[in-house]
Design a protein that fits this description.
It is a single chain. By secondary structure, the chain is an all-alpha fold. The protein has nine helices and no strands. The chain has helices at 2-18, 21-41, 45-65, 73-78, 80-85, 91-120, 128-152, 159-187, 192-221. Helix 2 (21-41) runs antiparallel to helix 3 and helix 3 runs parallel beside helix 7. The longest helix is centred in the middle third of the chain and has 30 residues, at 91-120. The two termini are 23 Å apart.
């Protein structure tokens, strides 16, 4: 069973490398959206430093949303989803494999792009480790919750419209905790409680989202 799970993740990674438009589009959106914020906020360095945590987290959330509507849609259309479910893996593990592939192809590039964006926005160097410590579980939460929502709306009419409406309220707490941790580190306040809440959120999403995602895949396949 573990070998099948790894094979599905490897298959998704090969497809992502072959058709890299989604990953490139997410990273480009993340960078361009972050670069446009200084133009909207003005040239004040202090204002940019104050807004930097929220800007980075909001841009990461929106960039992670871009490829979600195609996470399961292509497999449903060409029949690959039925074949994946017939391999013998529980639907929840199939959903988890797709979520893991989404994080590896979208979350990891966003982590790499977050460092130069934070420097561009004037975030103090001491806050960069806290930013990365929060973005790692935060991007995992985005992939888990986003994959769950993508499976729930799979096959529904106007699923692409429903998807952000489902994801945004669910991931808002992660955004708040992550941005608050960076802001606390920037101002010299304790940031550990916010990171602990973010980790607790990830710990709750890790078992629940694949189960809900598997139920959505099973319903769509039927």
């Amino acid at each position: 069973m573990g070998g099948l799970f790894i094979a599905i993740v490897a298959r998704e990674l090969r497809l992502a490398l072959r058709h890299g438009a989604d990953t490139l589009g997410s990273v480009l959106f993340f960078v361009l959206a972050g670069a446009l914020f200084p133009l909207a906020l003005g040239p004040s360095p202090e204002l940019l430093r104050h807004m930097a945590p929220g800007v980075i987290w909001v841009c990461a959330l929106l960039a992670a949303l871009l490829p979600l509507d195609r996470l399961f849609g292509s497999e449903l259309e060409d029949g690959s989803l039925d074949q994946l479910l017939l391999l013998g893996l529980p639907p929840s593990l199939v959903a988890l494999a797709k979520m893991a592939a989404h994080w590896l192809t979208t979350g990891v590039p966003l982590l790499v792009a977050a460092v130069p964006m934070a420097i561009m926005l004037g975030l103090p160097p001491a806050a960069l480790p806290v930013l990365m410590a929060g973005l790692v579980p935060g991007t995992i939460v985005l992939s888990l919750v986003g994959g769950m929502a993508a499976s729930v709306v799979l096959g529904a009419r106007r699923g692409g419209v429903l998807l952000p409406l489902l994801v945004l309220p669910l991931v808002t707490p992660a955004l708040i905790f992550g941005a608050a941790a960076v802001d606390s580190a920037r101002t010299g306040l304790p940031f550990a409680p916010d990171l602990e809440l973010l980790m607790a959120f990830m710990a709750g999403a890790l078992p629940l989202c694949p189960l809900a995602g598997g139920a959505g895949l099973r319903a769509a396949a039927e």
